[in-house]
Amino acid sequence: MARVHPDIYFFGGGIAEGRANMRELLGGKGANLAEMASLKLPVPPGFTISTRVCTYYYQHSGKDPYPRGLREGVAKSLKRIEKIVGRRFGDPDNPLLVSVRSGARVSMPGMMDTVLNLGLNDSTVEGLARITNNPRFAYDSYRRFCQMYGSVVLQLKPTNPHEPDPFEEIIDRKKAARGVTQDVELTTEDLKELVNEFRQLIRERTGHDLPQDPHEQLWAAIGAVFRSWRNERAIVYRKIHGIPEDWGTAVTVQSMVFGNLGDDCATGVAFTRDPATGEKGIYGEYLVNAQGEDVVAGVRTPNQISLKAGRRWAERNGISEEERRARYRTLEEAFPDLYRELVRIGQTLEKHFRDMQDIEFTIERKKLYILQTRNGKRSAEAAIRIAVDMVGERLIDRRTALMRVEPDQLDQLLHPRLDPQAKKEVLARGLPASPGAATGEIVFSAEEALAAAKESRPVILVRVETSPEDIHGMQVAQGVLTARGGMTSHAAVVARGMGKCCVVGCGELVIDAAEGLLSVNGRTFHRGDYLTLDGSTGEVIAGKVPTIEPTMSPAFKKFMGWADQERRLKVRANADTPHDAKIARDFGAEGIGLCRTEHMFFGEGRIDALRETIISETPEQRAEALKKIKPFQRQDFIEILRAMNGLPVTVRLLDPPLHEFLPKTEGELRDLASKMGVSYERLKQVCDSLYEFNPMLGLRGSRLGITDPDIYKTQVEALFEAAIELRKSGVKSQVEIMLPLIGDRKELEILAAQIHDIAREVLNSNGAKINYTIGTMVEVPRACVLADEIAQVAEFFSFGTNDLTQMTYGISRDDAGKFLKAYLDRGIYPHDPFAHLDPKGVGGLMAMAIERGRKANKKLKLGICGEHGGDPASVKLCHRLGLDYVSCSPYRVPAARLAAAQAAIEERQKGAAFKDV
Amino acid sequence: MARVHPDIYFFGGGIAEGRANMRELLGGKGANLAEMASLKLPVPPGFTISTRVCTYYYQHSGKDPYPRGLREGVAKSLKRIEKIVGRRFGDPDNPLLVSVRSGARVSMPGMMDTVLNLGLNDSTVEGLARITNNPRFAYDSYRRFCQMYGSVVLQLKPTNPHEPDPFEEIIDRKKAARGVTQDVELTTEDLKELVNEFRQLIRERTGHDLPQDPHEQLWAAIGAVFRSWRNERAIVYRKIHGIPEDWGTAVTVQSMVFGNLGDDCATGVAFTRDPATGEKGIYGEYLVNAQGEDVVAGVRTPNQISLKAGRRWAERNGISEEERRARYRTLEEAFPDLYRELVRIGQTLEKHFRDMQDIEFTIERKKLYILQTRNGKRSAEAAIRIAVDMVGERLIDRRTALMRVEPDQLDQLLHPRLDPQAKKEVLARGLPASPGAATGEIVFSAEEALAAAKESRPVILVRVETSPEDIHGMQVAQGVLTARGGMTSHAAVVARGMGKCCVVGCGELVIDAAEGLLSVNGRTFHRGDYLTLDGSTGEVIAGKVPTIEPTMSPAFKKFMGWADQERRLKVRANADTPHDAKIARDFGAEGIGLCRTEHMFFGEGRIDALRETIISETPEQRAEALKKIKPFQRQDFIEILRAMNGLPVTVRLLDPPLHEFLPKTEGELRDLASKMGVSYERLKQVCDSLYEFNPMLGLRGSRLGITDPDIYKTQVEALFEAAIELRKSGVKSQVEIMLPLIGDRKELEILAAQIHDIAREVLNSNGAKINYTIGTMVEVPRACVLADEIAQVAEFFSFGTNDLTQMTYGISRDDAGKFLKAYLDRGIYPHDPFAHLDPKGVGGLMAMAIERGRKANKKLKLGICGEHGGDPASVKLCHRLGLDYVSCSPYRVPAARLAAAQAAIEERQKGAAFKDV
C-alpha cells in the first residue's frame, strides 16, 4: 500500500512503514511500535508523524504550522485505523478512541505531554457506554479526557507548585460532597457532573467550550504535543542531558485498547528473563480489569505471570497453594492461551532484538495487545547471566555480550549491599563515594573506632572530614561518613582504596564530637546509636538495615575471562597494604600501579619516629629517628612484594607535606611535646614553620626528596632490602620506583641518581641483582609540556590525574564542593572532572605528554594511577590515548577490565565502520 | 711571520696572531690581548695556548697530555718574547719573568688558577736584584712565586676553610718573630729566609725541591692551569651559570712588567668616560710605585688620573690646591707624556671597541704598558648618557645604543636611592622585592602606619607577611619589610605596583608586634626606632641613611623615544588607583592592562558593606549592602578612566576569595559582630564555611561571578555608569572587562551574557554608547589547552602568568620559599620562575594558547598582566611569542619599553643573520 504522506508512518493491520532503526524520525516509541507491527505482533494500529514536522512547526509559527498535505494524510490514516479496528472516529454508535503521544529520539520520561481517550464527546461517550456495556467506564474515560485536554491542550494548570490543580480541586470538592475518599467510590452520575463542571471551568477560563469535534480535538492535541517539546522542564532536561534542541519530537496517534472493561480484561508488564537473577523464562506481574498505570501505582497487589514464579512468590510470602490458587491466580492459570501467546511473543521479540525485553501488554476482552517493548533494565547479576546465556544460545557473540554490561554495575557484585526488601528510614543523602553497605555504631574518632574494633563492635566513623591520621580508624570501621568533601576527598579516595563503604559531603550533618552528638535534619543521634550507609546511593539511614553478601558466580568468571581476551590495556591496582594487594590479585589486577607509602609512616612505632625526624635539629638525630622506621617499612614491602609475586609493583615515594604528620590542636601538640621530651614552644615553632597557605602546591612530593633526601633514602633502602630478602626465598620482585610531582628533567635526574647510588650500595653489599626501574608521576602540567625532556630520564610515566586535574583546572578537590554543584547545574562542566577524566583539557595535556614522551623514549611505559583509573569512561579515554595500563582501587579492577575490553571492541567497530566507508 | 704551532697564538712586538672575536679559542683575556697587540698598543708580549689543548689534555690523561709539537712551539714563542723584551728566560744576568694565566670563553672570576713571576730561581733572583737594583723587590717576587707555585701547582693549600694556609702560617710566624705586623716591614733578609722556609715546606710535603729549571716550572704551571678548569669551585660555578664542561680554558703566558720598581713606576685603572655620570674624558685612579692589586686593595689612597678630576676630588674633600699638588698629584701632572699617551690609547680603544673602556695599565720605568681592556661597568645614568653621546659622536647607531643599557638598570633612575657615599650598618639581607630606598620609624601594623602618616612621620611597615588589609598602611609607609614571602608575595607585588621600596622574605627578622620589638641577628629595635631599606639590594640597615632623589635627564627622554620607535609590543601598566594611573602615563604607559578591583572593596564605607554582603541571609540584604559600595566604585572608575583619557583600561572583576575580606582573629571577629549587629556565632559560622584548604585553587575569580553574580553585577554597573558620567564631560573611555580564572568556554559565555545584559540595561537607560570589550585572563592551564574554544567568546586574552606559573609548576608562590632556594642552588631551575617567565613550561602553554586562540579568532588581542610583564627577559619572551602588549607596575614601564625595543632589535638582527645564511 502506498504511503499517504512522506511525514506519516503507519503501523498495524499487517503494515509497518517504519522500522526500529528510524528513531531519528519516529522517536523511540514510534520506531519500536513500527518494528513490532512489522513482526505481525498484535499492536493496536496507529501512525507516527515524524520529527521533521516538529521542526517545520517551529519554523512556521504564526502561519499554518503543518506541511502541505499533512491534514489530508492524517485523515486518511485515521480511515486506515478505522478499517482495521472496525470502529469510526466520532461515530456515536461505535466510536474509535485514540491516544496522542510524544516520542523523542531518546527517552525523556515525563517531560512532554500525552492525551488519552481522544475522540470522546457528548454523543460518542454514550456509544462507548453502550458498546462496552459499562456507562461508568465510559464517563470515567470522558472525565479523564476532559481533564487531560484542559490541562495539556488548554494549559489550565497550576503555574507554581503551591497552587492546587483546578481539576483535582473540583474532584476533591465532589468527593467531599459525596462523603467519599476514593475516586472509585464516585458513581456514574457523579462522573457526569464532573464532566460538566470541568467543561464549565474550561468555558470560564478560555471563553470556549471543550470542542465536540474529534478532529478539532485531534489537531489541538497534536499541536500541544509539538509545543510540549519546548516547555520549560523539557528545555532544562535537554540542557542537563546534552540533547540538541533541534531534534524535535514525533507524535504517535494510536487506537486505544482497554484492560479495564471487565474480568475478561487485564494489563501487565512482562520481562523475557528475570531482571534480578537473569534466569530465563517469562517473568512479570499483571492485574485483571485494570489500567496500565494501576500495575505501577501499587494500589492493588499485582499477581505473577508464570506459575513457577507465582509458586515461588507464595512460598516466600508464606501463602498456601490453596490460598494462592484462590486469590493470586497467575496469568498462566487465568488466561492459559494468552499466556502461551505472550511467551511466544516474548521469544520472538527477544530473538528479534537479541536482548532481554520489557513488554507492556493489555488484554481487552480476551484479546492480547502489545503496547510497548524495550530492552529491560536488570541487576548486575542478571546482566552478566543474560549476557553469558545469550552467547550460549548463539543469540549474540562474546563482544556483544561484553558491551551489554555497564562496568559500573560490577561494583554491586563485589560489595555487600542493603537487602532491597528491607525497610529503611533515609535521613539524608551524601555523595556515594565508595560503594557497599555498612551498619554500625556511631563513633567520632579513629581512637573510638579502634577501641570498638577490639571489642568486635561494628562502627561507622563519622567525621567532618578525614585526614591521614584517621586511616587506622577507617580501616577498622564498617563505613565512613563525612560532612565535607567531594568524590575525591581524602575520605573518598582512601575508602575506595580500601573497598570500604563511604558516604561523603553530607552537608546536612551537624557533628558535635565533643558531646558525642550527631544531628541530621532534625533527628539527633548519640555516640553508640546505630546508623547504616549505602555507599552506592549515598543514603544515610537510621538504625540497622540487613545486608546481602556478594558472591562471584561462574558466569561472572567466564564473562571477565572474555573481557581479558579483548582488552589491550593492562589493569593494575592502587594498593598500599598486603591486604589490599591480595584483594587486588583476586580481582584480577596484573600488578600494583600505585603503592602509596605515606601510610607506612603512620601506625605505632612509626609516626613518633617520623615526628622525631621532622623536629630533629641535627643530621645525626634525623638519621637515628629514620633508622627506627626502616625495619617496619622493609617488612611492609616484603609482604606487598610477596603478595604480587613477581608482578610489577610501582612504589611511590613519600608524597604529602610533612605537616600532615604533625598533630593539629594545642592539646595534641602538648601531649606530643612531653612524649618526645621537647618543649611545647619548640614543637609549636616547627609546626608553624611548616604551615602552608596552599599545601597542594607546597613542599611535598619529590620536593621533599630534594630538600630532605634522607626520608627517600630510608624508603629506597627498605624497598631494596625487602626485594633482596624475598629473593633469598625464591620470590622475584619487579620494582618500579615512582617519584611524585616531578616538573623538570633535572629534578628527576638528581633524584634518580640518588636512587641508583642507593641501589648500587645496597645491592652490591648483598651481591644481589634486582630488577627495578625509575619513573615519574605526571601530575603537574609542566611535566606534560616538558615530557620529551623528562622521558629521557624516566623509564615510565604514570599520570596522576587527581592532581593533574586540580592543577589544569586550578581547582582544589577539597574546596571544589563550594562551587562545583553550580558548575554542574549550569552545564558549565558536563561532569565532575574528578569523577570522569576531562577529555579536552586534562586529556589534551595527557595526549601531549604521551606524544612527546614516546617520541623521546620509545620504551617509555605509560599508565594512570589517579582515581580516574577505576572510572569506565576514563578507562576508555585512556585506551584511546594509548596508555599501557590503568591502575585503580582493588574493588574497581573488574570494572576497569571490562571497560578496557569495551574500549578495545569500540575501537575495532569504529575501525570496521571506517573500512566500510 | 709564520705561526709556530696551530694551537699557539702569539701577540706583541707588532705581531697579533689572534683577534677579539676568537674568544672560543683564546678565552676572553687572550683574545683581547691579541686585539690590542694588533692595534700596536704597548702590550707586554706573550702567547696564548688555545682551549683545544685543554680538551686534548683531558682526553689524554695518563699519557703525554699535549699535542705533538706544542713543547717546541712554546719554546719558540718564548724565544720571540725574549727577542722583543731583550731578556732571556732563565738568564741569571737578565732574566725574563712570565705570568701563566687561565682564560675561558666567558669570565669565571677567581675560579681558576694563575702563577706570576715564573722564571725565578736561586740565580735569576740575583740577576733580577741586580738589574732592578732592588734586592728587596727581587726576593719579595721570589717569595711570592714560591708561595703561588706551592699553592697552585703543588696544591699545598688548606682542604677546608677552618685550616690555615701553610704559607701564610709561616709568614705570620716570621712577622711575630720580627715583632712586625705588616708584610712591607719585613727586610730582604727576612724574605730570603721565607723563601728557604717555603722551600723546606715544599720538600717536606712533596718530597721534591721547588724546581729550579724555569722550563720545568713553566710546564708544571701550564698543566696546573688546565687542571684548574676542573677544580671543584669551577665545576660548581659552571653548573650554576650553565657553562658547558667541554669549553675548556686557554692558557696565556705573558712577560711580566712591574709598577713597583721605584718612583718612575706606577699602576692604575682608567675609564674612558666617567662610569658614574657618563661624562666624556679619561677618568680613573693610579698609584706610584705599586702593584696592580694595591689600587684595588685600598691600603694606600690612589690619586686621580686627570687634573680636572683631581681638582674636583680635592674640592669635594676640602683639600687645598697647594696640598693637592703636593700630596695628591694626578697622573697628568706626574707623567704628562704618559698621560697623553694613555688618553690617546683610551680614544683608540674606545673607537675600536665602540664602547666605554675600563683599562688596566702599568708604568715600568717610565714606559706605559696596557695589561687589559674591557667594556667598563657603569651606572644607569652613565649608561644612558654614554649611549646617547656615542650616537651623537657617530660611534654607534641608535639600535646599538638601545642594546647597551640593561632595562633593569632604569629602575635606579626612577626611585630614590641610598647615597652611595653614606656609611651604613647592614643588619640582614632579604629579597629585593621593589627597588628604591626608604628610611623611617618602625611600625608593626597598618593602623600605626596610618596614625604616623597623620603626623607626617615617615615609617617602615614591618610585618611577618602582608594581606589586603595592610594595603592602606603600605600606601602611607615609606617602605615595607616582611619576614616571609618571595618575589611575588603579596607584599612584593603590591609594593612594586605602588613603586614603593620593599624588602621581603628576610628570615632573620624576629617580630614581636605585641611587645613592639624587632630582633635581627642579635640586635633589638623598638617601635619608633629608625630603619632603612634598600629595595634594590634587599639590605636592611640600622638607623637613617641619606637618600638621593631621582631625576629624568634629557638624555633619558631621548633614549626612551628611540626605544618607542623600535618596539612592536605595546606597554601598559598595572594600576589600581587614579594615583597609579597618573604615574603610569608619566612613565609612558599606553593604557592599563590590569586594574585590580579588590582594593575598591577595602577602605572606609566599603569593607563593612562587603562584609554585610558576605554574611547576608537574603538576596534583599545582599542587594542593600552592595548598593552602598557602588557609588564609591563608580567614583574610583571615573577617576581612573579620566586619568587614562581614552586609552584602554582593562578592569578585572573581583578575583580573591571572599574570606580574604573577613577578619581572622577572634577579637576582630567579635568586634565586627557587634559592629554589624550579628551574633559572634553567626559570623564565625560564615567564616568557617568559607574556609579553604587551598584558597589559590578555591572559590575565587570568575567562580564568584557564577556563584555570587550580584558582586560582579555591582562592579559592572559602577563601571558603565562611570563611563557614561565621563562621556557627559567629553572624556572618552575604552573599557575592557576582564574575567579572571576562566577555564571553560561556557563559563565565559554565561558571564559575558550577564555583562552584556547589564551593559544594555545601563546604556539604554542613559541612551549612551560606550566602547567595551569582554575578555579573559588566561591563568589556568586548561584555558591554554582550550584556547580555541574560549577565543570564540573572548575578545582578548591577558596571560595571568603569576597564577599560570603556579599551576603549571604546581607551586604556590606563597609557600615556594621553603624549597625554591634549594632548587635554584642545585640548578634544577635556572631562575626563580616567578621572577623570569619559564620559557619552556609556562611559555610552551602560552604558545599553545596563542596559536589556538588566534586561529579561532583572528581579532583576538593578546597581552600579559602578570608580574613578569615588568621583567626584561620575560618581555622579550612575550615579544617572541607574538603578544600585542605587556602590562607591568608603573615603575617598570620604562624598563618594559626598553626591553620591548631590544626584543625587536634582536629579532631584526636574527632575521638579518638568517638572511646572510
Note down, in words, how this protein is organized.
Two copies of one chain form a homodimer. Helix content of chain A is 46%, strand content 18%. Chain A has 36 helices and 34 strands. The model of chain A has no long low-confidence stretch (mean pLDDT 91). Chains A and B meet through helix 27, helix 29, helix 30, helix 32 and helix 33 of A and helix 27, helix 29, helix 30, helix 32 and helix 33 of B.
What gyration radius of chain A follows from the Cα positions, in whole Å? 33 Å
The pLDDT mean of chain A sits at 91
Class by SSE composition of chain A: alpha/beta
Number of strands of chain A: 34
Order of neighbouring strands in the sheet with most strands of chain A: 15-25-24-17-18-19-20-16
Portion of residues in beta strands of chain A equals 15-25%
Cα shape of chain A = elongated
Distance between the termini of chain A: 34 Å
Low-confidence stretches of chain A: none
Number of helices of chain A: 36
Helix content of chain A: 40-55%
User: Largest chain-chain contact?
Assistant: A-B, 48 and 48 residues
Oligomer: homodimer
Largest sheet of chain A: 8 strands, mixed
Keywords:
18% strand, homodimer, alpha/beta, elongated, 917 residues, 46% helix, 8-stranded parallel barrel
